[in-house]
Design goal:
Elements lengths: L1 H93 L3 H15 L4 H10 L10 E6 L11 E4 L4 E7 L1 E3 L5 E5 L5 E7 L4 E6 L3 E7 L2 E9 L4 E10 L2
Antiparallel strand pairs: 1-10, 2-3, 3-6, 4-5, 6-7, 8-9, 9-10
Length: about 240
């Protein structure tokens, strides 16, 4: 009887110790797993921290580069504005305006027409404010209208080498009917014809002014409205150039 009881107690204690050891091993396993997991978390945190630090460094470099670029663009803008102001001032100084621009246009037109630059230079150099002119000559003629062609519808100057003719719109009465004489308030068409048949057309509302050059003479014509049906033409003849 004593031997069986002894074996039972010993087996019981052995089971207890075995269970306790298993419990300790289980606890140790849990601690090992927790430690391993913690270590992995620490390594991941370190890796993430390093990555974030690298991103921050990269962004800082980009920020510095962008600030430098912005400064360079600002300097380029200031330089461009300064250059534009200089060009504008130079344009205002170098590009001709007003009468000088008109003169340059005339010179360009004559060059395009084949006039030699030596000829233009000679003419410009010979021009003076004091002109050698003859006494002006004034004549009048009847401006033709669509319903009236007067026999006195032409006049001549320079010994008959220059002829002036013209036509205007008919004056209308209170009923709107056309009359024989021209309306000086409406545009007229004049034609100055030089010897050889070359025509110089002039159009517009009176008074009108026009100049032509024939040989060594310049003729300047001023046309104004005269008495009913008439237009008065004053011709100045001056040496050219």
């Amino acid at each position: 009887m004593s031997l069986g009881l002894y074996d039972y107690d010993r087996r019981y204690r052995r089971r207890v110790w075995t269970g306790f050891v298993k419990f300790l091993l289980f606890i140790a396993l849990l601690l090992a797993i927790g430690l391993f997991t913690y270590q992995i978390g620490v390594e991941q945190f370190k890796g993430r921290d390093a990555s974030l630090r690298e991103d921050v460094s990269h962004l800082s470099r980009q920020k510095g580069e962008l600030e430098l670029l912005a400064q360079q663009l600002k300097q380029a803008q200031v330089s461009a504005e300064t250059r534009a102001a200089e060009l504008e001032a130079r344009l205002a100084t170098d590009v001709p305006h007003g009468d000088l621009a008109r003169l340059m246009q005339l010179v360009s037109e004559r060059l395009a027409e084949g006039v030699g630059i030596e000829r233009l230079a000679f003419v410009i150099a010979a021009v003076q404010n004091k002109r050698d002119c003859q006494s002006p000559e004034t004549k009048r003629f009847v401006l033709s209208t669509p319903i009236y062609k007067s026999p006195n519808r032409a006049i001549s100057f320079a010994g008959g080498t220059i002829t002036v003719t013209g036509e205007g719109a008919s004056m209308r009465d209170a009923n709107g009917d056309s009359e024989a004489w021209y309306d000086p308030a409406q545009p007229v068409s004049l034609r100055i014809t030089a010897q050889g048949g070359k025509d110089y057309p002039v159009q517009g509302v009176l008074p009108l002014h026009h100049s032509i050059v024939i040989g060594n003479s310049e003729y300047r014509f001023t046309v104004v409205a005269g008495s009913r049906s008439f237009a008065e033409v004053t011709a100045d003849r001056c040496s050219f150039p």
